Structure formats: C-alpha cells, structure tokens
C-alpha cells in the first residue's frame, strides 16, 4: 500500500517539479540544468566515439591517418562550439579558453573556438535592465541620462553598454547575463563529470585540470566587486608606467553583477588599420605590452590573465601609444617560490642554457619533458632555443614545425599540463594570447623585448635572494651583482641601437 502511495505521489510530484522548473526559467527548456547536461554529455560522447572508431580504423603510420585526424578535429571542434553556444555562460568561457591555447592544442580546435571571443550570445536588454534594478535598486532610465541599447561587446559572462551618468560622465556599464550565476554550479559539476569521463576513456589525454581551473576561477569572475578591486590594485601597482591606463571604477553604481567604469576610447590592440590611421607604432605597442606583462609576471607576481584583443585597447598618447587594460576579472597571484623559479627558467631559455632549463623545469615538476616544456613556454622550436631565441629570427617554417609538433606531442603536452603547478596554467594561456596579438600585428618579440624580460627576471631573482641575507655585506654583494648584470644588459641594448643606425647598416651591407 505504501509503495503504491509512493508511486502515486511520484507521478504527481515529478510533473509539478518539472513544470515549476520550466516556469522559473521563463519557459526556456534549453536553460534547464538537466537539458544543458544532456546536451553536453551527448556532444562529448559522440566526439569520444568518433575518435575511438578513427583510432581503431587507422594506425598512425597509415597514409590517410593525418587527413582523417584533421577532418575529425574540425568536425569535433565545430560540434563542441555549437554546444558551448547553446549552453552559454561557463561553457563559452571554457571554449574561449581553448581558443587561446594556440601552441598547446591542435590548430583546428583553436581556430574554431577562437570565434567565441567575438560572437558570444547577447542577452535581452530588458533582462539586463532587471539585473540593474535588482542590484542597484534603481531603473536604468533613472540612473543614466543616456544608455545605448546596442552593446559595445558581449562576452561569455556579461555584456557592456555605453552610457552617460546624470553628471555628464561617459561610462561603460558591464552587466552580468541574468542566468549565468544561477547556472554556474550545475555547469561546473557537468564539466567535472565529462572531463573525468574523457580521462577514463582516453587515459593518455588528461584535461581534468581544465574543469578544476574553471571551478576555481568562475566564481571569482562572477564577482564584479572583486573585478573592480583588481582594476584599482593593478593601476596602483603599475603606476610607474605612464603609458598604462586602467578605467576608474564608479563604485556608487556598481555591485556583484553590475560594474560601472570610466569609458575609455581606443582601438583593439590587433587592429592594424586603426594604428595606421592614428599613426601608432606597432613595434612600440608590442614592446610596451611586453614591459607590462614582464613586470606583472616576474616582479609583482600579480597577473591580468585575459589579455585577448577585446580587453586591450590602444590610443595615441603624448609620448607614444597608450595601452588600456579592460576586464580585470581573471587574475593569477604567483607565489614567490614559483615566480623566482619561473624567472630562472626564462633566463635559462634566453641564454640557451640547457642544464639551467633542465634544472628549473624539474623544480617546476616537469622533469624529463623539460625540452618540450621550454618549447611550450617560448613557442619556439628546440633548434631556435639552442641557437638563442633573441638572436634566431622566427620564420614561417618554424611556425609550421611547431604546429605540426603540437599534433604529434599531444600526449606529452597533456602530461606536462597535468604536472605543472596550477599557477602555470593561466600563464600558459596568457602567453599564448599575447603571442596571438603579436602574430596579428606581424610583430614577434625582438631583442629589445627579451632585454626588458631579462631585466625583470634579474630583478626578481636577486631581490628574492637579498631577502635571505643575514648581513649587510651579503646584501650589498647581491645588489652590486644585480646592478652589474643590469649594466651589461644596458650596454648590450646600446650596442643593438648603434648597429641599427643607417651608417652601421650601410657598412654591414657593403661588407656582405
């Protein structure tokens, strides 16, 4: 009798619960957690089966293997992107992350996912106005004199609208998509389940770290108060760089889901036409961006980790280009031990010091894969690293070689990503995004860029060593050593400047 009663209650309760869920989601079935989970699971299962069938059909030595893998990569990446767009929010964020890993994933996935940076779905304007009212307690029309209904940009978690405050100030209003925060918990659990399932089916491809990083970072990115605080902290930390601009936060019109900031005019950092029209030096932009990130990574240990072109603007300033950094939601704080080892690793790579690379890669838990790890960090071939990356020009042949090797070493790359300290994962993404900007500007890091990086690495390492000094003699000895190293680098930079002068260039061409 009790069993019959239970089933009767179940037949009644389940439809009621389902109906309530549908109503609470504004009759949008696609936004239900179970639907998004099912959609993601079906997509991943289909992709997994396709790869299993391919690997069973072709051996890696088969003449048709390369073409078959290429076609399947494209097909699978497109399916994955479609699923991310339908599920939205956290899924788009992960898709954008994959689209940033140009030297760590097959190019088919990178190019397919990269589209998500510019084509994230938009929210309905009335839904966004509801978010503003719920968080700030006032209607949009009461808060702003003007509010542009067309967004400046739509991202995975929010979209930005240009507006004018009642006092006449132009602002950019970042408003969180209404359902992102509510869906985030289920979406993260879905990703965790799926990446563990993929790891079980394909033990050599371990991307569990992707779900772990999303689980850690997404709640932070959904907190716009935290983003505003990051913005202010970075502005104070890098105030010595007069060419850097971070927008001022308008706190009285900001909350967890609404961030109102000073509106900053500028062109996207990868917009060559904008730079040409405004007489902005591309090489100076690359050099200054490199200075900012070298200071953040090696010296400060506090890194803006989402520098894709939509978040980095440039404009003409009094003393060259100004760089405007937007979207301060995703930061990585580096421990001192990690920061110093990472600095030493880069110094070894710049100096073509193989033993140094091996030693510091081992300290970063990479061990016998130190050569591949160095190539991943620098996005250069092993031959280029041995020749000196500040002296060996980057060529199209080398670029093609690297892209081929990414496909050939997927298992080893996956192993490295599973071994390295978690702090390294966002740095790898940041490095790849910055290199993507350089590629769009047709500007690879020059000797000057490596000189700036070397200065920051030397400062990071010797400042850290000075902290352990127990006597003034130790301190002054290390300080002198630091200054001598920096002086040598300065002399080398003067030498590079001299040989670049027309007189020296002419003599060189005559002798050749």
From TrEMBL:
Superkingdom, taxonomy of origin: Eukaryota
Q: Please list the residue ranges annotated as the Protein kinase domain.
A: 146-395
Q: Which InterPro entries match?
A: ABC1_dom, ADCK1_dom, Kinase-like_dom_sf, Mito_struct-func_regulator, Prot_kinase_dom
SMART domains, per database record: S_TKc
What's a single GO MF annotation on this record?
A: kinase activity
User: Which SUPFAM superfamilies does the record associate with it?
Assistant: Protein kinase-like (PK-like)
* Record's keyword terms, sorted: Kinase, Transferase
Q: By its UniProt entry, which Pfam families does this protein fall under?
A: ABC1 (PF03109)
Record's family?
Answer: Belongs to the protein kinase superfamily. ADCK protein kinase family.
The protein's name: AarF domain-containing protein kinase 1
